[in-house]
Amino acid sequence: MEKKTLLVIPHFPLVGNVLIRGEALAQGLAKDFKVYLLSWHYTPLEGAPYPTRLVSRLLGILRPRRVFPKDRVTVIETPFLFIRNPRLHFLRWINTAIVNRILRDYHIDVVLNELAVVNSKDLARPHFADIVDLPTPGELTRWQHQAAEARGVVTITEGLRQELQRYGLQAEVIGNGANVSKFRAASGEAVRRTYGLGDKFVIGYIGNHEEWSGLTFLLDVFKGVKLVIPEAALLVVGPGTEVTRAKAKRDREAIADVVFTGAVDVATVAEYFRAINLAVLPFELDPHSELSFPIKVIEYSAAEKIVVASPVKVLASLSLPNVNIVPREVGLWVAAVLNLRNTKWQPEWNRQIDAHDWQQVAQNLSVYIRTRL
Fold it and tell me: For the chain, which end, N or C, has fewer CB atoms within 10 Å of the first or last residue's CB respectively?
């Protein structure tokens, strides 16, 4: 039987140093569908004034369409107005018209949409909604509008499912994952050589470090660890608005052995996960972070690392044997790191981590979609 053609609209465009949920699901869904993945021109301008960012996003509508293969899917990079929470309906109308044109041009059978700035209710094909973040009030209204005629709605955590249910949105939980075999097979030796880490005890924080990331809290924790483990080092991998503040704190307080790598390519990021001895997730807790599903925890686990994490709700439900949930107090975190520094990975844990491979997650979503079509 010929595969149905699926268009995945991710919540964020493809960028070179980040693997987004939409792309990971698209690659996994290619087993059962002929998959097209939507993307658009995007210039990262974090920290730039709002008018500068707005003009850059508006200029995206002038970019020509590009179509190219990427692994098992075909990427359609299209003109698009990527403006979050647009107040003007015509912006969403333009984006929806663009997507409808793609549906016709590529004979799409079904759409999986993660983006509130497309009115998937007005698309000319059956559609599913994938809600990956806690919506703002405006986004929530739009998701309610879209879900009214959706074949199904999925979301990433039980906590977010319950929050959506309060507003009449019934959703199935399909969590996040990792390319487990890739992380297990990687070697961290080259990374340790590059950054002069040698035989140091390396605490690693890998991800996108925005204001909720807890980087400055982590630096205070690291100072306490350094008093007991002089050979400790802190490796911070990835970009984000909080990196500048954290660097300033490192320099102002003369905290030794703290390395910021900036963004690294997604093709080599597994090597950074393997290079560390102990992983951390020091998220500040707010409604968004508490209902999130941090992919990096699955990636840490795929790389066979012990993790110290803030009490993000989804982590308690996952019950991963290597993840230690610790209240966000400096003294408690210092004690946890010291207690766990010699803890070894147990091979029997791998079977539990395998359930979070992106291919398995995508297969669960594929079954959900196919049974509802």
Answer: N
- Taking every pair of C-alpha atoms in the chain, what is the biggest distance, in angstroms? 65
Q: What are the angstrom distances between the C-alpha of 361 and each of 24, 177, 355? A: 9, 7, 8
* Strand, helix or coil for residue 32: coil
Whole-number pLDDT of residue 86: 54
Tally of helices (H runs) and strands (E runs) in the chain: 16, 14
Q: What is the pLDDT of residues 95-135, one digit of tens each?
A: 899 999 999 999 999 999 998 888 888 888 999 999 998 88
User: Taking the domains of the chain in order of start, what are their residue ranges?
Assistant: 5-177+357-372, 180-354
pLDDT digits (tens, 9 = 90+) for 260-300: 999 888 889 999 999 999 999 999 988 777 778 888 999 99
Q: 368: left (phi > 0), else alpha (psi -120 to 50), else beta?
A: alpha
Whether 5-177+357-372 and 180-354 share one fold: the answer is: yes
CATH topology classification for 180-354: Rossmann fold (3.40.50)
Residue at 179: amino acid letter: N
Residues in the chain: 373
Alpha carbon distance 125, 122 (integer Å) = 9
Q: Could you give the CA distance from residue 135 to residue 250 in angstroms, rounded to a whole number?
A: 34
> Residues with Cβ < 8 Å from 171, sequence gap 6 or more?
131, 153, 154, 155, 160, 161, 164, 165
By C-alpha distance, which of 37, 93, 35, 85 is closest to 61? 93
Give Cα separations from 212 to 46, 160, 199, 276, 290 (angstroms).
15, 18, 31, 22, 11
Look at the alpha carbons of 294, 299, 301, 302 in this order and tell me if their dihedral is positive or negative.
Answer: positive
pTM: 0.86
Is the pLDDT confidence value at 249 over 80? yes
Q: With contact defined as beta carbons under 8 Å apart, do 113 and 86 qualify?
A: no
Least confident span in 136-150, 181-195, 353-367? 136-150
Please state, rounded to an integer, the average pLDDT across all residues of the chain.
Answer: 90
- Cα 250 to chain centroid, rounded: 27
Structural Rg of the chain based on CA atoms: 21
Mean pLDDT of the 204-232 span: 94
Q: Identify the pLDDT of residue 265.
A: 83
CATH 3.90.180.10: does it fit domain 5-177+357-372?
no
